[in-house]
Amino acid sequence: MHTNADSSSNVCIEDNFMSTGDDLVAVKSGWDEYGIAYGRPSSNITIRRLSGSSPFAGVAIGSETSGGIENVLVEHVTVSNTGTGIHIKTNKGRGGYIRNITVSNINLNTVRTGIKIAGDVGDHPDKNFNPNAFPVVDGLTLKDVWGDNVQLPGLIRGLKNSPFTRICLSNIKFENFKQQGDPWKCEDVSGYSMEVQPLPCTELASPYGPNLLIHGLPPGFLKSRCNV
């Protein structure tokens, strides 16, 4: 079995062991123009003390995000023999938002991708979606993550027309990763990182965030805005 929280508020999912052919736990809020019309977000959701295995994701947020997803806490998750440890996903045409997400105390063993945050995931119910309905992804904190035998530590790919912002990584360590070349793949993202091994992509490598002085912001501004 797997668990979906869809257009739901004030939900607690805890103390579960799962083995399934889908994401173990997924948070969603509606699909393209139908989710936008319904307009009901998923918010105030806690997922804790979860363990299991899946060919897909341990915990997924999205890709159906059209009503918006916010204020989600994911903590104390252990997954093994899994496709992706933590998968935060959306797509153009979705609209909506993903914001104020905190993921902490994650243990990954034998997974293809440790952390994946992507804006090009999921199909569409029909051809009536608005291709200019771009989702907003902002304020994601991932901290205290350990992984062993991870093929690719991280892939974070935003949208050119809606870059992902305030992606904050802290105290993350992947050992025995298998990726040849860059262990982190990033595009159209900005954020902050501290104590991440292997070193993240340049867009997230600074403890102060990119281009702060250009925008007149003091060093440490992004760190103060992250839940780390």
TrEMBL record:
Q: Does the keyword Hydrolase apply?
A: yes
Q: Which residues form a coiled coil?
A: none
Per its UniProt record, what SMART domains does this chain match?
PbH1
Record's superkingdom?
A: Eukaryota
Any single GO molecular-function term of the entry would be:
polygalacturonase activity
Entry keywords, A to Z? Glycosidase, Hydrolase
Q: Does the keyword Ribonucleoprotein apply?
A: no
An example GO biological process term is: carbohydrate metabolic process
Q: Which SUPFAM superfamilies match?
A: Pectin lyase-like (SSF51126)
Matching PANTHER family: PECTIN LYASE-LIKE SUPERFAMILY PROTEIN, PECTIN LYASE-RELATED
Q: Which family does it belong to?
A: Belongs to the glycosyl hydrolase 28 family.
Question: What's the name of the protein?
Answer: Polygalacturonase
Q: Which organism is it from?
A: Platanthera zijinensis
